[in-house]
Amino acid sequence: MERKKAGKNVNIARDSGGEKQFIRGLGHQAINVKDLGRSKRFYVDVLGLRVLHEDAMRVFLKVGEGENFGILALLAKPADGLEPVDPSLRQGNKYNHFGFRARAPEEVYEFAEHLKSHGVTILKGPYTRKDGTSIYFLDPDGYTLEHLHLIENPAAHTK
């Protein structure tokens, strides 16, 4: 569907059922960290993310490329206000995490060796599951992260 906006044609995405799709991707994820420098080193030196901007209280990291890029914001502990929740207190809940996309299943296994060589705590994997390949690991603050390759249509791969 096209709609006129300020003299321009704007395409509105639709899903396979014809419904409007307003969400085009994840723009950013912001997390509180205990030590901004330590977290920056982990995400840049170990995970390979690139710094877009930083100041004394925040580091903005580029995740992905092209149309699929997003931003991970590392936020230093605020000088006042409520104390951020310690993510390590939430371990054991496998649904409390965020994942980074891999290009291929083999890349997940290769990345696992990279993480091990940097002494990163691995919670589960790498392993192949019905919808792809995955590994769960911890960042320096205890956030659970995942590196995964998803199969676009898992049902087609089981036949």
What key attributes describe this structure?
single chain; 159 residues; alpha+beta; 2,3-Dihydroxybiphenyl 1,2-Dioxygenase, domain 1; 2 domains; four-stranded mixed beta sheet; 3 helices
Shape: globular
> How many separate domains make up the residues?
2
**How many β-strand stretches?**
10
Question: What is the CATH level 1 assignment of the largest domain?
Answer: Alpha Beta
The residue ranges in which pLDDT falls below 50 over 5 or more consecutive positions are none
Instruction: State which percent range the strand residues make up.
Output: 35-45%
SSE order: EEEHEEEEHEEEH
| Residues in helix, % | 10-25%
CATH evolutionary superfamily of the largest domain: 2,3-Dihydroxybiphenyl 1,2-Dioxygenase, domain 1
* Assembly category: single chain
Largest β-sheet summary = 4 strands, mixed
CATH topology title of the largest domain: 2,3-Dihydroxybiphenyl 1,2-Dioxygenase, domain 1
Based on CA atoms alone, the radius of gyration comes out at 19 Å
Distance between the termini: 35 Å
